[in-house]
Write a structure and sequence with these properties.
By secondary structure, this protein is α+β, with helices and mostly antiparallel strands. The protein contains five helices and 15 strands. The protein has a single domain, classed as paralog of FGE (formylglycine-generating enzyme) (Alpha-Beta Complex).
Length: about 300
């Protein structure tokens, strides 16, 4: 993984992907024409260790992607229809941001170097802030505490798939060559465009953008392609294996890459977009080019996913 500040790893064994079917594709899928775009970042915003660069041309065939990340309501329908048990439920715990735990909550193990991440028994997608929490008033928020394997199982049920990393960035950019879908400024003219940590991380979140934790999936204005919250709110799983050297190796050829699918193997899967815990003081990964890798069975309170599909 690139940085434990964003989403700590869990060293869990990967469960087989459930192949249950029966759900239907969401009607919020939008069709994108694809074509050529410049992928990656080498500016002062980028984290070289994450492998954001070099900038390279990619050509994509047309595909469909959801306007929204998968919500708690949608994941509830999947779990009730299939009986799916998430990795967090199987293991009995997940990682929760310590600022969400009540003062009287028992001491829990923290992640070394990122002690704001706490191992909380009883935390899962139904109990996103620990066993004392519920999904009340969060039906339209993104589902969290879902692993890459859980996301794959949802896709199998709904007749969709996870977007490739290249598809995700193309859709998130929506034609932008800047760090954000709307341009160069994090808060243009003082306007909040996404859900990130406001204040002094990790102890004081002013929630000036309206939310201290997750926001509804349709919060803020969509990008030019119609996607909501591709940056901020929650990290989003992609289909690809993660390799910090993958872009550099691919750039050794001057020829553009066509529909890249990432490395053939690996230990971590890619997630994109940053989350409500990103802050300029330590983690500027709330940008269209930012990437991280996490173990496929890992789960945290700031990682979700959106689905994609091939066009007939």
């Amino acid at each position: 993984m690139s940085d434990a500040c964003c989403a700590p790893g869990s060293d869990r064994e990967v469960a087989p992907v459930a192949r249950a079917t029966g759900g239907s594709r969401p009607d919020s899928l939008i069709e994108l024409t694809g074509g050529a775009f410049e992928m990656g970042d080498e500016s002062e915003w980028a984290y070289p260790g994450d492998g954001e660069g070099p900038v390279h041309e990619v050509i994509l065939r047309p595909f469909a992607i959801d306007r929204y990340t998968v919500t708690n309501e949608m994941f509830t329908a999947f779990a009730e229809a299939t009986g799916h048990v998430t990795d967090a439920e199987r293991y009995g715990w997940s990682f929760v941001f310590g600022g969400f735990l009540p003062d009287e909550f028992p001491d829990t193990r923290g992640v070394v170097g990122a002690e704001w991440w706490r191992q909380v028994f009883g935390a899962d997608w139904r109990h996103p802030d620990g066993p004392q929490s519920t999904l009340a008033d969060r039906a339209d928020h993104p589902v969290v505490h879902v692993s890459w394997t859980d996301a794959q199982s949802y896709c199998a049920w709904s007749g969709t798939r996870l977007p490739t990393e290249a598809e995700w960035e193309y859709a998130a950019r929506a034609g932008s060559t800047s760090p954000f879908p709307w341009g160069d400024d994090l808060e243009p003219a003082g306007e909040h465009r996404m859900n990130v940590f406001q204040g002094d991380f990790p102890g004081a979140n002013s929630a000036a953008d309206g939310y201290a934790g997750t926001a509804p999936v349709d919060a803020y204005a969509p990008n030019a392609f119609g996607l909501y919250n591709p940056t901020g709110n929650v990290w989003e799983w992609c289909a690809d294996w993660y390799d910090a050297q993958y872009y550099a190796l691919g750039a050794q050829s001057d020829a553009p890459q066509s529909d890249p699918r990432g490395p053939d193997e690996g230990t971590h899967r890619v997630s994109r977009g940053g989350s409500y815990l990103c802050h300029a003081s330590y983690c500027r990964r709330y940008r269209v080019s930012a990437r991280q890798g996490s173990e496929p069975a890992s789960s945290t309170g700031n990682v979700g996913f959106r689905v994609a599909a091939d066009l007939a």
